[in-house]
Amino acid sequence: MFHEALTHVAPLTEDGSVHVFVETPKGSRHKYDVDDHGLVRITVELPEGVSFPFSFGFVPNTKAPDGDPLDILLVTAGPVPAGALIEARVIGVLKMENDEDGQMTRNDRIVAVAKMSRVFSGVETLSDMRHGFAWDIEHFFATYNEMIERPFAIVGRGERDEAEAMLRDAIPGGA
């Protein structure tokens, strides 16, 4: 279903925006993943009172250093449905690592603002977000990883230029 359709989606649009495939909508207590058949499946239920602070997904047809498509956090004023494909502007990166098969592995989250967002239209870099934004997201991921009993560490943050470089590196053949 989604898997076949996504093979035809370029990571970037003609104007340089990034395509974001939303797996988990903002406000969800469930973590969704697209399986090998292209179906969206619930993989984790978060505790009462914990929900995804923004939509979470990936950039189609990319490969991050961990071997998966590049993870991306999509900033919007409200939720968008799982399975949505949204054009966005990259604004930064939250650098993280977590345990993969007994070894700590980088698992960064690119941060992007939906192009159609009026609320966040003036945001160009991670530093433009409200005070505490990055800390809030990092704390969410720390809590999430603690809940699933997976070692996790925050490595740092980067602005738009560093995130865009990571995105270009994740596109097979470059961008």
What share of the residues lie within helices?
Answer: 10-25%
Strand/helix succession: HEEEEEEEEHEH
Number of helices: 3
Given as residue ranges, the uncertain stretches (5+ residues, pLDDT < 50) are none
CA distance, first residue to last residue: 27 Å
CATH topology: the name is Inorganic Pyrophosphatase
Main beta sheet strand tally, sense and closure:
5 strands, mixed, barrel
Q: What is the CATH architecture annotation?
A: Alpha-Beta Complex
Question: How many domain regions?
Answer: 1
Question: What is the radius of gyration computed over CA atoms, rounded to a whole number of angstroms?
Answer: 15 Å
Strand order of the largest sheet: 1-4-5-8-6
Structural class: alpha+beta
Mean pLDDT: 93
Shape: globular
Strand tally: 9
CATH superfamily: Inorganic pyrophosphatase
Keywords: Hydrolase, Magnesium, Metal-binding
GO biological process, one term: phosphate-containing compound metabolic process
GO cellular component, one term: cytoplasm
Cofactor: Mg(2+)
What does this structure look like?
The chain has 175 residues and is α+β, with helices and mostly antiparallel strands. The chain has a single domain (2-168), classed as Inorganic Pyrophosphatase (Alpha-Beta Complex). 18% of the residues lie in helices and 35% in strands. It is built from three helices and nine strands; from the N terminus they run αββββββββαβα. The chain has helices spanning 2-6, 133-147, 160-170; strands spanning 18-24, 30-34, 40-45, 55-58, 71-75, 85-100, 103-106, 109-114, 152-159. It has a five-stranded mixed beta barrel. It has a two-stranded antiparallel sheet with strand order 2-3. β2 and β3 (40-45) form a beta hairpin. The longest helix is centred in the last third of the chain and has 15 residues, at 133-147. It is globular and about 40 Å long. The mean pLDDT is 93.
